[in-house]
Amino acid sequence: MLSLLIVVLDNSILNVAMKTIAQPAPAGLGAGQAELEWAVNSYTLVFAGLLFTAGLLGDRFGRKKVLLAGLVVFGVGSVLAAVSTGPGQLIAFRAVMGLGGALVMPATLAIVMNVFPREEQPKAIGIWAGGVGLAIAIGPITGGLLLQHFWWGSVFLVNVPIVLVALLAMTLLVPDSRDPDKGRFDPLGVLLSVAGLVLLVYGVIKGGQLADFADPQVLATVGGGLLVLALFVLHERRTSHPALDMRYFRKPEFSAAVAAVALVFFALTGVTFFAVFYIQSVRGYTPLQAGLLMLPLAVAQMIFAPRARLVVERFGAKAVCTAGLLTVAAGFLGFALLDETTPIWVLETVFFVLGAAIAHIMPPATVSIMQSLPTEKAGSGSAVNNTFRQVGGALGVAVLGSLLSARYREGVKGELETVPGLPEGARHTAGESIEGTLALVDRLGAAGHALVAPARAAFIDAMHVTVVCAAVVALLGAAVVALWLPGRTRPETAKGSETAKDSETVKDSGPESPEPPDAGARHVESPR
C-alpha cells in the first residue's frame, strides 16, 4: 500500500503543479501545453509500455524483488526530475520515473492476490483502491503546501523519504512470491507496444498543436501507431511466449472489465487535467486552494471503495459498474454548468459524485479481471489492469487535451490578432493554452488586460465541449459493461469458486471460455 501510495501520489501532485511549471523561469520551466502533456505522457507511456514485462519479471523472479527495484528507480528519477533545468529534461526524467512505476504497480496487486484467499480478495482490493483515493487526496494538498513555500521541484523531491520508508518496510514485512512455471520473455512484443503507443499519442498531441487532425503528418503518425499496435496483437497471438496472452480476452468478465477501466480513465484523466486550469487560471485560486477543492473527488473514493464489495454482493458487478459509469457521465455533464461565477459548491458536488461513482467501478472491475486469471499469473494480470488504465489515461490527456487546445485556439484567435506588433510565433504560443495567453498578458502589462476576459470565456467554452465528449466515452463504457460483463453470480456458484480456490486450483468460468495457458498450474502460496 505504501508503494502504491507513492506512485499515485506523484501524479496527483503533478496535476496541481502544472500551472507553476508552465510559468516562465525562474518560477517555473516555461512549459507549453504540449510539453505539459508530455510531462504526463512520457511517464504514462513508459509505464504502460513496460507493464507487460514488469508483470512477467515479477512472476518469474519474485514480485517483492521487482517492487524493491522499482522503488529505487522511482526514487532516483524523482531526484533527477526535481533538478530539471528545462521542459525537455523534466519529460526525460519523468520517463525514468515511469520505468520505476512500471516495476512497482503490478507487484502491489499481485502480492495482494497471493497473500489473501479468494473470499477475502474483494475486500482487500477495495482497500487497495481506497489507497488510490487516499493518495489522490494527499497529493494536491501536499503539492499546494510545497509550492506555497518551496520551488516547483519540491513536488518530486518529496518522494525520496517515502521511498526510503517503503524500502525498509517492504524488506522487513512483505513475503515474496512467484510463478513456479517460469516462461520466456517477449522483447519484440514490448518494443511493438511502446512504439505503437508513442506514435499514436504523439500524433494526437500534434493534431491539437496544429488545430488540424486532418494534417498529413498527424494522419501518418496516428496511422503508423495503429499499424504497429495491430502488429503487436498479431505477434502476441502467434508467439509461444506472449507478453500478453490474447486468449484472456475471450473471457467476458476479463475483457469487459478491462474496457471499462480503460474508458473511465480515458475520460477521467482528461477531465482532471484541465480542471486544474479552470480552478487556477479561470477562478484564480492558488495551488494549495486547488488541491483542497479537489479533495471531494478523493474523499469519496476513500469512503466508498472499501465498501463497494457490499453493493456488488447485493446487486452484482454488472449492475454496479453500469450504474457507476452512467453516474460518471452525469458528473462530467455537470462541468457544463460551470462558468466564471458559478458557486464553488457546485464544483465540489460534481467532484464528490465523480469520486463516489469511480469507487463503485474500479474495485469490482479489478476483482473481475484478477479473479478470471490463474493466481500464478497475478503479475501479468495486474499488468493488464494497470496497462489499460494508464493507456486510457494517456489517450485521455492527449485526445481531450488536444480537443480542448484546438477549441481554445479557435476561440481566442481573433483577440490575439488584434494585438499590434505581436510576432507570429508568439501569437501561436499564446493561443495554445490559457496559460500561454495569460503569460502574454503579464509581458504586455496594462495593454494586455483586455485579453483576460476573452481568454477565460474561450477556455470555458472549450471545457464545455470537452466534457460532453468525455461523457460520451463514459456512456460507451456503460454500454460495454451492460452488454458483456457477466451478471450477478448465484450463491452456489460463488461457493463453488471458493472451494476451487481452497483446493489451490483456479477454474475457468465455463466451457465457452477457452482456458489460457498455465490455467491449471499449481499455485504455490507464499508465507502469510
From TrEMBL:
Record Pfam families: MFS_1 (PF07690)
Keyword RNA-binding part of the UniProt annotation: no
Task: Identify the stretch(es) annotated as Disordered.
Answer: 488-528
Q: Is Oxidoreductase included in the keywords of this UniProt record?
A: no
- Chief subcellular location equals membrane
Do you know which Gene3D superfamilies this protein is assigned to? MFS general substrate transporter like domains (1.20.1250.20), Multidrug resistance protein D (1.20.1720.10)
The compartments listed are: Cell membrane
Residue ranges spanning the membrane: these are 38-57, 66-85, 91-113, 125-145, 151-173, 185-205, 217-234, 254-279, 285-305, 317-338, 344-362, 465-485
Superkingdom: Bacteria
Composition-biased stretches, type Basic and acidic residues, lie in: 489-510
Query: What are the residue boundaries of the Major facilitator superfamily (MFS) profile domain, all occurrences included?
Result: 1-489
Topology with respect to the bilayer: Multi-pass membrane protein
Give the NCBIfam families listed for this entry.
efflux_EmrB
Q: What is this protein called?
A: MFS transporter
Question: Which organism was this protein described from?
Answer: Streptomyces iconiensis
Which taxonomic lineage does the organism of this UniProt entry have?
Bacteria, Bacillati, Actinomycetota, Actinomycetes, Kitasatosporales
